[in-house]
Every structure is written in C-alpha cells, then in structure tokens.
Amino acid sequence: MLTNDVIKFSHRNVFVLSTISAFSALGFIWPFFYTGKNVPHTQIFFWIATVITVFLVILEISQSKLDSKSVAILGVLSALIAALRPLGAGAIGIEPMWFLLILSARVFGPSFGFLLGLTSVFVSALLTGGLGPWLGYQIFAAAWIGLLAGALPWRTRLRGGKEIAMLMVFGVLASELFGILMDLQFWPWALGSQTQLSFQPGASQNLSNFFAFHFLTAMAWDLPRAVFTSALICIAGRPVLSALRRSYVRAAFLTPIEFNEHVTQQKEA
C-alpha cells in the first residue's frame, strides 16, 4: 500500500505506539472479559498511554526526526479542528471536526492522522474545559480514526468522485466507530446492575447487552454524526483536499527522490 506519510517514526517508536494502542484498547474492551467483582478504574490505561505518546512525540521533535514543517502543519490543523469541535456542542451528533480530521489524514498519512486526532482533541479539551475521565477515550478514538483515514488505499488511483465517495463511506463508518467506542466507556456505569442490558462482570451476554444498549440509545447521535460528516465531505471535500495537497507539495515534506514520486501521486489523486 502506498501512502504519503509526512511523519516518519523509527521502527522502534512504531512498535511502541502500536503497543500503546493495544494497551489503550484494553480500556475499551475490558467489560467483555473482566470477571472480578469491583469495576476497575480504566482511566489509568489512557493516562499512561497518553503520557507515553506525548513523550515520544517530544522525543522525535528533539531528535529532529519531526521537522519544523511537519510540526507547524500539525499545530495549525490541530488548532483548526479544536476550533471546529465546539461548534457542535449541544447539538445531537453535529460535529464538524471529523470531516477535517479525515481529509487531513487522507493527505498527510496515517502517522500524521494518529497524532492529529490525539493533539486536536486534547487541545480542544483544554480550550473548552472538557477535561474529565472521558478524555482519554476520546483522544484515542480520534487518534485511531485519523490513523485509519490515513491508511486508506492509494494504489487504486482514486480520482475525483470515487475518492470523495470512498471518504464519505469512511466518514459514516468512522462516525459509528466513535459512537461505539464512546459507549464502551459509558455503558458499564450507565444502567446500574438491575436492568436486562446492564453490565454483569463475567456474564456471557455482555456483548449482546452492549450492542442492544448502543443501538437503542446512541443512534440519535451516531446517525446525525454520520450524515453530517459525509455531507461535509461531499460538499467541501474536493476544495479542502486540493488546498491540503497544495500545502503538501509546496512544503516539500519528503526527500527529493521520494518527494517527486509522491507529488505525482498527489496530482493524480
């Protein structure tokens, strides 16, 4: 698979980030294998993982493996997404941040998308006072969506409408994925222990209970989020992609030999 990833981590750091993601995933899926009596404090998974991730990014910058252009564009896009996020506050599923995260990750690649999702949600929480036990979940959900968007295939030589259609479908899937991940951090405490859909440690029906709870309660958020995100990609996708790709080409992120190959690829896309 060809990608245009402007941020190149070492193999060691890719392994560490993968391990961190796997560790954080335990904070989402623990209800399906946990058999203890007391509900664990899962936030520790995310705070440890977030601190290690931020430390790795600082280390990469200090060792000049992330050049100034990559850091600058990451900062600008993180600020834009953080500014877009409050625009949907209080509205059911109306969250304009996702379309810009998806399009940015599409242009700049999976590692960039991972960091962009992480930093933009964190900055938004600082600006809006959204710090709380849910923040770690939101950070990694957004980071994984950025990673997946950046990893969408390039070999297919998608052009124009086909690329937009692919991104619209991904926007729908990403909206549902975010809703599922957010419900995973909410469901074990939401219903107490006395309902048919409650979390019961060690119970074999926890998986079916969760998805019944999710589809009964979250569709009012997930469907508007999916429709709104895909509609923004349909309406603004082409001009935003063009602007981002012009920035990519003019900034000359990659080395000359690699850059020429990716410029051609970006122009063809």
TrEMBL record:
Record keywords, A-Z: Membrane, Transmembrane, Transmembrane helix
Transmembrane region(s): 14-33, 45-64, 70-87, 99-128, 134-152, 164-190, 210-236
Taxonomic source organism: freshwater metagenome
GO MF terms held by the record: transmembrane transporter activity
Coiled-coil intervals: none
Organism ancestry: unclassified sequences, metagenomes, ecological metagenomes
InterPro entries: ECF_substrate-spec_UCP037395, ECF_trnsprt_substrate-spec
Pfam families: ECF_trnsprt (PF12822)
This protein's name: Unannotated protein
